[in-house]
Specification:
The complex is a heterodimer of chains A (419) and B (408).
Chain A (H helix, E strand, L loop, with lengths): L9 E6 L7 H12 L3 E6 L10 E3 L2 H17 L23 H5 L2 E4 L9 H8 L5 E4 L37 H15 L3 E5 L2 H9 L8 E3 L14 H7 L7 E6 L10 H13 L6 E6 L5 H6 L3 E4 L6 H10 L2 E4 L8 H8 L4 E4 L4 H4 L6 E4 L4 H13 L12 H21 L1
Parallel strand pairs in A: 1-2, 1-4, 2-3, 4-5, 5-6, 6-7, 8-9, 8-11, 9-10, 11-12, 12-13
Helix pairs in contact in A: 7-10, 8-13
Chain B lengths: L5 E9 L4 H12 L3 E9 L7 E3 L2 H17 L23 H4 L3 E4 L9 H9 L4 E4 L37 H15 L3 E5 L2 H9 L8 E3 L14 H7 L8 E8 L7 H14 L5 E7 L3 H6 L3 E4 L6 H10 L2 E4 L8 H8 L4 E4 L4 H4 L6 E4 L4 H14 L11 H15 L1
Parallel strand pairs in B: 1-2, 1-4, 2-3, 4-5, 5-6, 6-7, 8-9, 8-11, 9-10, 11-12, 12-13
Helix pairs in contact in B: 7-10, 8-13
Classes of the chains: A alpha/beta (419), B alpha/beta (408).
């Protein structure tokens, strides 16, 4: 594709924070610039970059966000926590008058909950009549407020009587919020919805909110320059793990999160223990410092890596692992899976959300049946017996993903010019 | 020792420079001494052994920093920091402190503790071990006195302060410290470097006090040598060109000598080698510095994780420490642990760690040409640098245990 015609275009990426899930927004920002499209990134939370094209919002916006979080925390206090988050932004910051926004030709809105943007702020951005591309990092943009609907399908027809909310009223907060979003979305034709997973793409095609809207499937970008394989023995040596240990890694950033399914991994480990395998196994835990409770629940040797901030540290950790396990029950396109595969380490997970997009069963990973701990255990054993060097699937390669973004932009501007 | 000794370590933060306190804390806990860290802030994963001073401390520190910046606005910045704590919080009623047998005081400024709060701790009559991370505990306010020796008699006419009065703020603060120190006999001073140990022995504030020399501790299992080519490949650094690393918590600090590094690199390029790669890591915007040097360079930004630091040291062929005033810089210990030779000036505690032309190069103080030659020497020496056994964690830990034995 001839990229020259895009070279005078300016993009802006809006996201909560450059850390953690923000890495997807951050990497997209970097790739745009690498391919010659000017991209500016705007984050609410202060981060580490001092380039001119990275902006962090000031104290006022952060204060507003904290107040919003307090209010939401209070109103949500009786919610069913096991069904995860429910967000209905009350306060937010209007960024539509910022220079970077005004000068941009199109706007990417990533994850902006937790008091960053409310619906009014989003509307002000859409009103500028520039193409607005929503990158869906979870279901929030297509539901009445939950970030994952689990088995609830009400977002298809219109949210009501939400299982997360404590009331049993039909017209509850979810229904009110759903209508607000519907009104907002139907009023404008310059909005586009991009899902990083096929699962979420299908949800978008079904939701009453987005059924008539242009929806696309474009995976997140993984930086294969950083996340790459190197000698496993050296990686184990760096972490002081014996070279012949079989290392199972998992991320424990939000071990209590209803989305993350930690108890299924715990069961799988119990099953492996009972089988008395001739196997010296170490469980490598990301994202948590030493935790007695977790240690007691794991019937094998453990090593806690603490919270890793720097990508290269993660590269060491993925490389030291023989298998990475992600017991998520609801997940879009988890970055950890991409990172692990990109480091050559196969991944075991449930066949749910965007996980099957990335894993080819028994080739670069193992897809267990949803909520089946036995399946997870079998998957782990599979990679004990079969030393496999995993790879990311071709559709996730940077060039492929960027080409899809350029196609999208091309399509949008063709439409704009045609209109 | 029969019963378990309980130590509380009071330190500003457990990130980066806090790592000395953090590592000692871990080593204590792993070796049967119960240690609790009481900090103003932390970026490490918090477990039960790390406690926070709380919101009040944050507010006080915020106000303190505003006050001090205002009052110090006319100071000569090239002389570095001058601190005279106005506000601070009282930690003496905290359970962690009450239950402790010994109190370790590390770096406690920027509004965490003031003299009154130190005195309240001293009044508890528990031994207080003061770990000096710079000269502040033995001067009238500066963190490094450079060539000034007034602290050996009594601080006055401080070169940092803008006035020309003889009895200035440094005198006032010096006298306050003197009064405080002489009132209590439960204060023990520990210096990580021989240089600072000698300063403490000579300072009027501490010449009658028990002073000890115990280096900082760097874990051998975390910082160690790995295959240089692998480290370079992971970090995407060319393997066929020499790599020169420079890093500090704050790259622009007047103590860290960025200007000398810039000069040395320019000289190196002109006279010796043209194909090197420079890696910078640490806090601060260094785009200007990058532009001013003739080599290709990469900025790693602020590195949080020890694993990534270990990769950088291993990828480097030489680590440069152009500090013009420094105690016992952790970066040098870490680099040598990873087998990478270090070039630096013969100043502060740096000669404690570098044996000239053995594991690195000690350049003449402030002589950037000699520093450039040192960088070249390290690149060419092609052997694994070793850190002297006096820095072995077991030996350092033993020194602390001996100290505790003596004072309890």
């Amino acid at each position: 594709m001839n990229l020259n015609k895009f070279s005078n275009l300016k993009a802006v990426q809006i996201h909560y924070s450059e850390k953690a899930s923000g890495s997807a927004a951050w990497r997209l920002h970097c790739c745009f610039n690498e391919y010659g499209i000017n991209s500016t990134a705007i984050f609410l939370i202060k981060g580490n970059h001092n380039e001119d094209n990275v902006k962090y919002l000031g104290r006022k916006a952060n204060l507003i966000a904290r107040i919003d979080q307090k209010i939401q925390g209070f109103i949500n206090r009786k919610n069913k926590k096991e069904l995860g988050l429910f967000s209905f932004p009350i306060l937010g910051t209007d960024i539509s008058k910022r220079k970077e926004i005004i000068e941009s030709d199109f706007i990417y809105i990533h994850w902006t909950s937790m008091g960053f943007l409310n619906l009014k702020n989003i509307e002000n951005l859409i009103k500028l009549q520039k193409p607005v591309i929503f990158i869906l990092h979870d279901m929030w943009h297509i539901t009445g407020g939950c970030h994952y609907s689990f088995d609830c399908n009400k977002y298809i027809t219109g949210c009501q009587n939400c299982p997360i909310l404590p009331t049993t009223k039909e017209h509850d907060l979810s229904s009110k919020e759903f209508k607000k979003k519907l009104k907002l979305y139907s009023r404008y034709h310059n909005i586009y919805f991009v899902s990083p997973s096929k699962w979420l793409y299908n949800c978008t095609k079904e939701s009453l909110l987005t059924i008539k809207k242009p929806a696309f499937y474009i995976p997140n970008i993984i930086n294969t320059n950083v996340f790459k394989p190197f000698n496993k023995q050296i990686a184990k040596n760096i972490l002081n793990i014996a070279p012949n240990e079989f290392v199972l890694a998992f991320g424990a950033v939000q071990i209590g999160s209803p989305y993350k399914g930690w108890k299924y991994l715990q069961n799988a480990l119990e099953i492996l223990k009972e089988e008395n395998l001739e196997l010296s196994l170490t469980v490598l835990i990301f994202g948590s410092g030493f935790n007695k409770t977790i240690e007691n629940l794991i019937p094998f040797k453990t090593k806690f890596l603490g919270h890793l901030n720097d990508e290269f540290s993660m590269v060491i950790a993925y490389n030291a692992a023989d298998v990475f396990v992600i017991p998520s029950l609801a997940d879009n396109q988890p970055t950890t899976v991409m990172e692990s595969l990109s480091c050559g380490t196969p991944v075991v997970g449930f066949n749910t959300g965007g996980i099957p997009d990335m894993i080819k069963h028994k080739e670069n990973g193992y897809l267990a049946q949803y909520k089946d701990s036995n399946g997870i255990a079998t998957g782990i054993k599979f990679f004990c017996e079969n030393k496999i060097k995993a790879e990311i699937l071709p559709e996730f390669k940077k060039e492929t993903v960027m080409l899809q973004h350029f196609n999208l932009i091309n399509q949008i501007f063709a439409k704009v010019q045609g209109a | 020792m029969d019963k378990i000794i309980k130590v509380v370590q009071i330190h500003y933060s457990v990130e980066a420079s806090g790592s000395a306190a953090w590592r000692l804390h871990n080593a204590f806990n792993e070796n049967g001494i119960q240690s609790i860290l009481l900090v103003h802030k932390s970026d490490k994963t918090v477990d039960e052994s790390i406690r926070f001073a709380g919101l009040k401390s944050k507010i006080i520190a915020f106000i303190q920093s505003k006050f001090q910046n205002f009052l110090n606005r006319k100071n000569l910045k090239e002389w570095g920091l001058f601190s005279y704590p106005i506000f601070g919080i009282d930690l003496s009623k905290r359970n962690e402190v009450i239950n402790a047998d010994v109190i370790y005081l590390h770096w406690i400024l920027l509004g965490y503790l003031n003299f009154a709060s130190i005195e309240k701790l001293a009044k508890l009559n528990k031994p207080i071990v003061i770990i000096m991370h710079d000269m502040w505990y033995i001067t009238g306010g500066c963190h490094n006195s450079f060539t000034c020796e007034n602290y050996t008699t009594t601080c006055h006419s401080c070169p940092i302060l803008p006035g020309t009065k003889e009895n200035d703020l440094s005198t006032k603060e010096f006298k306050k410290k003197l009064k405080l120190y002489s009132k209590y006999s439960n204060l023990y001073f520990v210096s990580p470097s021989l240089w600072l140990y000698n300063c403490a022995v000579n300072s009027l504030l501490t010449n009658n006090k028990p002073v000890f020399h115990i280096p900082n501790l760097v874990d051998k299992t975390l910082f160690k040598k790995i295959d240089k080519h692998v480290a370079k490949k992971i970090l995407n650094i060319p393997i066929d060109e020499p790599t020169i690393a420079f890093g500090a918590v704050s790259l622009h600090s007047p103590y860290k000598g960025g200007w000398y590094l810039q000069k040395a690199l320019q000289y190196l390029y002109k006279e010796e080698i043209q194909n090197a790669n420079i890696i910078f890591f640490g806090g601060g915007d260094i785009r200007e510095l990058q532009k001013s040097i003739p080599f290709k360079s990469t900025s790693m930004g602020y590195v949080h994780d020890e694993y990534t630091l270990m990769l950088i040291y291993n990828a480097a062929d030489v680590f440069v420490v152009p500090s013009i005033a420094d105690n016992l810089p952790t970066t040098v210990l870490e680099s040598l642990r990873c087998g990478t030779p270090v070039a630096g000036f013969n100043v502060g505690g740096i000669p404690d760690m570098i044996q000239h032309k053995e594991n690195g190069y000690l350049a003449k103080y402030k002589d950037y040409k000699d520093l450039a030659l040192g960088i070249k020497w390290c690149i060419d020496c092609k052997k694994t640098a070793e850190l002297s056994s006096i820095f072995d964690p077991e030996i350092i830990l033993k020194k602390h245990i001996n100290l505790l034995d003596q004072i309890l």
